[in-house]
C-alpha cells in the first residue's frame, strides 16, 4: 500500500510546502511531480527550449506504451491516478508537459498543434517507442487528434477525454487578438483561478481538488507571471485558430470518446452572451454528434460529471479506460 500511494503523497506534500511559500515558479520548479521528470531539448524558431516529461516504466511490462496529453490549464501532475492504474497493468506511460505548460519552457513562439505533434513524435523517437495508445484530455484532445492525423502509423488507438474543439469556436466566439487575450490573462489572480476551476471543471467541488488551484493560481504570484500570461494568450490563439473538428472523419485508428455529460466547456465562454452559452459547449449533445463523425468510434459517457472525468469520476473512468485501451 505504501508503494502505491507514494506518488500521490509526494505531490500533495509539495503542494503543502507551496502553501507555506509566497509563490510558484512559472516553470513549476518548486512543484515535485509524482514521478521523475526528464527533459527533451528542442530548438524552435532559433530558441533552445526543453520539454519536460515523465517516462514511467512498469514493474511487469506488457510491451505497450500509453502517451498522455494534458489540457490547457494543467500539466502532467494531474495524471497521477491514471499513470498509477496503467503502470499497474503493465503499460509504460509517457506524460509530457507540452511547450508552454507545466515544467516545459514558456517560449514566445508561434504555437501550433502541428509543431507540438512533431515535437512529441521526436520525444517518442528519442525513447525508442514505435507505437502508442494516445490519450488526450481537453486541449490535449485537440493535440492528440492532430498527432493521429499526422502520424497514424504511430498510434494503435486514440482515446479522447472531454476534448475541446468539438465545435469551431471561430463561428460563434468573437475574435480577440493575442494582445487582447494577454491583457485579460494579466488580470488572472489566485481568487479568479479558484472560482473558474470550481464553476467550470466539476459538478461539485471537493477539497481533494484544491491542489489544482494551488498550482494553477500559485503562478499568478510570480514576478515572471507576465511571461506566463503571454504564453497563455498565444496558446489560446492556437486553439481558436486551428480547429480539428472538420477532420474527425479522416481518423483511421480505433477511437474512444469519453465525456462527462455535464461538461459545458467553451473556449472563450466569457465573451459570449447567456443565450450563446446555452447553444454551445453541451457535451451531452456534442459527444454523440462527434462520435458519429469518427470511423470505428466508441462513446462512453459519465453521468453527473464535468470536464475532467479522470478526477471527478475517477473509479468509473479508470474502469472504462482499462476496459477499452
Automatic annotation (TrEMBL):
Provide any one GO MF term from the record: monoacylglycerol lipase activity
GO annotations of cellular component type: membrane
The identity of this protein, by name, is Pimeloyl-ACP methyl ester carboxylesterase
InterPro entries of this UniProt entry? AB_hydrolase_1, AB_hydrolase_fold, AB_hydrolase_sf, Epox_hydrolase-like
Residue ranges of every copy of the AB hydrolase-1 domain listed in the record: 65-313
| Signal peptide span | 1-19
Q: Gene3D superfamilies recorded for this chain? A: alpha/beta hydrolase
Instruction: Write the lineage as a comma-separated list.
Output: Bacteria, Pseudomonadati, Bacteroidota, Sphingobacteriia, Sphingobacteriales
Listed under GO biological process in this entry are: acylglycerol catabolic process
Task: Write out the entry's keywords from A to Z.
Answer: Signal
Q: Entry's Pfam families?
A: Abhydrolase_1 (PF00561)
Chain segments annotated as coiled-coil in the UniProt record: none
Q: Does the keyword Signal apply?
A: yes
Top-rank taxon? Bacteria
Amino acid at each position: 500500500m505504501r508503494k502505491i500511494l507514494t506518488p500521490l503523497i509526494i505531490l500533495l506534500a509539495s503542494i503543502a510546502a507551496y502553501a507555506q511559500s509566497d509563490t510558484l515558479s512559472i516553470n513549476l520548479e518548486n512543484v515535485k511531480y509524482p514521478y521523475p521528470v526528464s527533459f527533451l531539448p528542442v530548438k524552435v524558431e532559433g530558441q533552445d527550449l526543453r520539454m519536460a516529461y515523465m517516462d514511467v516504466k512498469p514493474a511487469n511490462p506488457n510491451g505497450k506504451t500509453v502517451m498522455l496529453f494534458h489540457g490547457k490549464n494543467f500539466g502532467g501532475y494531474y495524471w497521477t491516478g491514471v499513470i498509477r492504474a496503467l503502470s499497474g497493468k503493465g503499460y509504460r506511460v509517457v506524460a509530457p508537459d507540452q511547450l508552454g505548460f507545466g515544467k516545459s519552457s514558456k517560449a514566445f513562439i508561434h504555437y501550433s498543434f502541428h509543431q507540438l505533434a512533431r515535437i512529441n513524435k521526436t520525444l517518442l523517437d528519442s525513447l525508442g517507442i514505435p507505437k502508442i495508445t494516445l490519450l488526450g484530455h481537453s486541449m490535449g484532445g485537440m493535440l492528440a487528434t492532430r498527432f493521429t492525423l499526422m502520424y497514424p502509423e504511430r498510434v494503435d488507438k486514440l482515446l479522447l477525454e472531454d476534448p475541446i474543439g468539438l465545435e469551431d469556436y471561430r463561428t460563434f466566439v468573437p475574435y480577440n487578438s493575442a494582445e487582447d487575450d494577454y491583457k485579460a490573462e494579466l488580470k488572472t489572480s489566485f481568487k479568479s483561478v479558484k472560482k473558474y476551476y470550481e464553476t467550470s471543471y466539476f459538478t461539485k467541488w471537493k477539497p481533494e481538488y484544491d491542489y489544482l488551484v494551488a498550482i494553477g493560481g500559485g503562478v499568478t504570484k510570480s514576478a515572471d507571471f507576465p511571461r506566463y500570461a503571454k504564453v497563455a494568450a498565444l496558446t489560446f490563439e492556437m486553439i481558436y485558430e486551428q480547429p480539428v473538428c472538420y477532420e474527425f472523419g479522416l481518423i483511421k485508428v480505433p477511437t474512444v470518446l469519453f465525456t462527462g455529460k455535464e461538461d459545458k466547456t467553451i473556449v472563450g465562454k466569457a465573451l459570449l452572451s447567456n443565450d450563446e452559452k446555452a447553444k454551445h459547449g453541451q457535451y451531452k449533445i456534442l459527444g454523440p454528434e462527434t462520435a458519429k463523425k469518427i470511423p470505428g468510434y466508441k462513446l462512453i459517457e459519465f453521468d453527473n460529471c464535468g470536464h475532467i472525468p479522470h478526477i471527478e469520476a475517477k473509479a468509473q473512468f479508470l474502469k472504462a479506460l482499462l476496459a477499452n485501451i
